[in-house]
Structures are given as C-alpha cells and as structure tokens.
Amino acid sequence: MITVIGSINMDLVVDTTIFPKQGETVLGNRFETVPGGKGANQAVAAARLGGEIHMVGAVGQDGFGEELTANLSTEGIHTRFVATAQETATGIANILLYENDNRIIVVPGANGLVTEAEIDEARELIERSELVIMQLEIPQETVDYALRVCKEAGIPVLLNPAPAKNFKEEWMNNIAYLTPNETECEEIFHSEIEEALEKYPNRLIVTLGAAGARYYNGKEHVFIEGFKTKVVDTTGAGDTFNGALAYAITSGQPLKEAVRFANIAASLSVEKFGAQGGMPTLQMVEARLKG
Ligand SMILES: Nc1ncnc2c1ncn2[C@@H]1O[C@H](COP(=O)(O)OP(=O)(O)OP(=O)(O)O)[C@@H](O)[C@H]1O
Ligand SMILES: [K+]
C-alpha cells in the first residue's frame, strides 16, 4: 500500500493563437478543465497500474473540489484523508497554451492548508504504508514534518522535488529515492549531475526526458534508455514516471527493473493528451516491456 501526500489541482487549460497584451481582450480557441496537481497525478499513475493508493491532501468546499475527489475515487484511490478546507478554494493551475509552449499560473488554494495536523490525522495510515510519495506543491513545513514521521516509523519516502526551489538538501537523510529531472538536479545540488549521483548511490534517480533516466549504483553510472515513441503531449510524463517507479519498487522489483518499468509507463503517457489521460494500465506496460 502506497500513501501519496501532495497537491490536488484543477488545470484550467486555454489554447490560443493570439496572446493578449496588458489591458487587451482576445478570443481563444479552446478551453478545458482537467484534473491535475502533481500529488493527484502520481496517485492516479500508481493506481492505474493496480497499486492500492491512499491520498492525503486538501481541496476547497467548491465544485472543483467535489469533482477532483470524485475523480480520485473513480481511479480507485482512497480519499478518506482528502480534507475539505472551509477557508479557501480548490487549487488551480491556469495554463495558457500558445505557440507550442505554455505559461502557467498556479494558485495553491487548499493545497496550502495541508498542514502537520493533517499528517497527524493520517499518521496511522502513513505508518502502515510500504512507501510514501511526496512532491513539493504543499507547504515546506508539512513536507519536513511528514519526512520526520516517516523516518521515525521506518517508512521509505520517494520524493519528487518539484518545484525544486522548495527542496532542502538536509532532507536527503530521510529520503529513500529522489527523482529530479536534469534541471531540478542542478538547481538542488549546485554541482555536476555525476557528482550528485555519486553522492547518493541507488537513491538519486535523474530523469532525462525522451532519453530515459540514470542513477549511480555504487560502482558505475547506469543509464536506462527511454522508449522511443510518437509524442502527443508530454504533460504528466514525470508524474507517470514517479507513480510507476513507486509501484514497481513496492512490487519488489530491483531498482534497475523498476526504472525500466517507469520509463515504459511514462513513454505510454506521452502518447495521449493531458496529464492523467495517457497513464497506462499494468497490461499496457507489460505488453511494451515484452516488446
Ligand atoms: N518524448 C518522450 N518519449 C518517451 N518517453 C519520455 C519522453 N519524455 C519523457 N519521457 C519519459 O518521462 C520521464 C520523465 O520525463 P522528464 O525527464 O521530462 O521529467 P519532467 O521534466 O518531470 O516531465 P514533465 O514535467 O514534462 O512531466 C522520462 O524519464 C522518460 O521515461
Ligand atoms: K500526456
């Protein structure tokens, strides 16, 4: 059983060919609301593969909150510890798609109210988990506290350090697996990737986009190649990688196989639109692994 402690957002996606200047109004092409937030996305990725997943987080007392909680339940995720905050709205990400790139404004809302009290409430659940997954879209103090709770209980933590600016290197003592992409790795360790990897053998796994992922096994650098595929939308690739890595590790796969499994799962996710849209089932990953 895996517990995910993290963010739950509604992504408000606007696709436009004209970008407004200050004070200007333009007409966009398309608008969609899609469930997101790194916490929820990683929970969905692991659940699609068949993992038993509990989510710890918060939404507001509004329509988006209801919709997002229902979405998690539909994916088979336990939501008993998804709190409904009275004081603030559900977290949102306002995503503007423009000229094959994006501009994003995140309003954390209820995600900012995932506090130590919520961790205490879920403590019994956390202590029963085989693995806890976290990211950095909830308050830093909460991550700090949850890491200490997990350390005391001997529960391994997989931490996806995004956004990287919220990471503290002292946390490494309490982290079993850290999964930055290359930019995040440099931002966190202020050194060459090789040097950081050698400092944390079998614990620091750096994702390399289409190229796959790498880590250091104590003797040599290990590169696990990505699976070449036709990309539709890479949103959610990192989240799929993390959810799948957690699932594979708790299924008893050695690190090398687990990273290969996560690469394959993430390669399937980039073939479809949206963060959660392309997250694969176990059968889909196994079929691609067999080639
Ligand atoms: N174009 C691609 N083709 C195949 N696999 C991909 C591609 N892009 C990403 N992946 C897979 O997704 C994983 C995570 O990608 P990446 O290193 O870009 O992380 P990220 O920056 O956190 O992703 P994102 O923020 O886009 O979700 C990679 O390790 C790889 O397995
Ligand atoms: K996708």
Word description of this protein:
The protein is α/β, with parallel strands linked by helices and 291 residues long. Helices cover 35% and strands 24% of the residues. It has helices spanning 38-48, 63-74, 116-121, 123-128, 140-153, 182-189, 193-199, 237-250, 255-269, 282-290; strands at residues 2-5, 9-16, 30-36, 53-60, 78-85, 91-98, 101-107, 131-134, 157-159, 177-178, 206-207, 212-216, 221-225. A hairpin with a 4-residue loop joins strand 12 (212-216) and strand 13 (221-225). Helix 1 (38-48) packs across helix 8. The mean pLDDT is 96. Bound molecules: adenosine-5'-triphosphate and potassium ion. The site of potassium ion has 9 residues, from loops. Potassium ion (K) is lined by residues 233, 235-236, 269-270, 272, 274, 277-278. Substrate binds at residues 9-11, 37-41, 137, 239.
Order of helices and strands: EEEHEHEEEHHEHEEHHEEEHHH
What is the topology, as strand order, of the major beta sheet? 5-4-1-8-9-10
How many structurally independent domains? 1
User: What is the CATH homologous superfamily assignment?
Assistant: Ribokinase
Which architecture would the CATH scheme give at its second level?
3-Layer(aba) Sandwich
Assembly context of the chains: single chain
Q: Terminal Cα separation, in Å?
A: 29 Å
Number of strands: 13
Q: Sheet with the most strands?
A: 6 strands, parallel
What helical percentage do the residues reach?
Answer: 25-40%
CATH class: Alpha Beta
Shape: globular
Number of helices: 10
Overall pLDDT score: 96
CATH topology: UDP-N-acetylmuramoyl-L-alanine:D-glutamate ligase
Spans of at least 5 consecutive residues whose pLDDT stays below 50 are none
Bound molecules: adenosine-5'-triphosphate, potassium ion
- Please give the radius of gyration in angstroms: 18 Å
Subunit structure: Homodimer.
Function: Catalyzes the phosphorylation of ribose at O-5 in a reaction requiring ATP and magnesium. The resulting D-ribose-5-phosphate can then be used either for sythesis of nucleotides, histidine, and tryptophan, or as a component of the pentose phosphate pathway.
Family: Belongs to the carbohydrate kinase pfkB family. Belongs to the carbohydrate kinase PfkB family. Ribokinase subfamily.
GO molecular function, one term: ATP binding
